[in-house]
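In this supplementary section we document a worked example of the pipeline. Step one takes a protein sequence of length 245 as its only input; no multiple sequence alignment statistics are reported here. Step two produces a three-dimensional model, which step three serialises into structure tokens for compact storage. The input and output of this example are shown verbatim.
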Amino acid sequence: MSPRRRRSLIWLTAHGTALVIAVYFLTAYVIVPAAWRHVTKDHPALSGIPTITHTKDGIPGDPLNVALIGFQEELTQAMLAAGWYPADPITLGSSLRIAGDTILHRPYEDAPVSNLYLWDRKQDLAFEQPVGDDPRRRHHVRFWKSPQLDEAGRPLWVGAATLDTRVGLSHMSGEITHHISPDVDAERDKLLADLQRARALSAIDWIADFQQNLEGRNGGGDPWHTDGRLGLGVLANNPLAVQVN
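The serialised model returned by step three reads:
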């Protein structure tokens, strides 16, 4: 091969490699993210969605800070794979157990959560992750299923993720309740990170300025603050099969 032909071949190879790299970065970091942003932010339930839950008495509750797009089975599998337990329903038995386990410092991984309301109904699903040896401290999230579906027939599950730090009296009603950490963004970020580690999300996006009020108080009188963003994920079909026993 002549030197001139060799130089031409090297030039074509180098430029071909550069073109392939450029196409990869354009696809991976511009085209695909833009397509996923369209998929996530185009869900009809995001139009006029509420931003705050309410108690049964109409008092503002925990702020909404996370949402997931997918079917109920995908959501349940994703939360299990991420190490979150479905919360027990509120019954006399579960109420007595959580009281006893709190006093005696015994674990209760699927302890019930109190009801909050959105779209005039209580949460459809609730999950939690214990912290320590009793139900005083726990990560937990409530989800409400949107009435609207996207073009693929999938609902939006909008949620309020918070960290229970202790049991005490409500500053509003005087009832016994869990008090939450004011940093609700940390819980939002933890939940999404757990789902990502479980490979339960095919995409994640952020809705800026979702919360217009960046601080407030929930139904128990606990202060909260946020950067205003809603974390929005698309559920994957096949999360890791890490089931909670």
